[in-house]
Structure formats: C-alpha cells, structure tokens
Design goal:
single chain, mainly alpha, 2 helices
Length: 94
Amino acid sequence: MEQQMNAAKQMIEMQKAGFDGIMNSTLMFLNQSDVMLNSFLSLATWMPEEMKNAFKQQTEIKKQAFEFFKKSIDDGYDNLMKLLEEGKFPKFGQ
C-alpha cells in the first residue's frame, strides 16, 4: 500500500509541475500582452480616455481572475497532498 501511495504522490507532483509550467508560460504571455497593449494605448492619441481606461480595467480584471484560478488549483493540489500524507485518501480494492 505504501508503494501505491508513493506512486500516487509522484503522479500528483508531476501533474503539479506540468500545471506550474503551463501557468508560468501563460503568465509570461499575459504580461507581454499587457506591455504591448499599454504601448499601443500610449500611442493611440485618437482613442478617448474612457476607452483607454476600459482596456486598463479589463487588464486588471484579467490579472485578478488568473491569480484566483491559479490559487484555487494550487490549494486543490495542497489539499490532495495533505490527504495522501494523512492517509485519509480512499483505499480502493478492499
């Protein structure tokens, strides 16, 4: 049973590492798109300030949603690892 638990932990850690890599790549993409958008907005003299502010507000909402999503997934992985370490994970096949 201990061997199965170790295998489960390794699989979960591998999945978490993959998730972290994807999230880091996505965050880099989002940051770069924000830099490009801010550059565009600073040069768009024809665009009204209200519209520029709407784009900036959308960027902030996007960042908050991304951080909330990442924190939710991280919390789920942490809770799953706690269950495995405490031995409260369901034992199948008994």
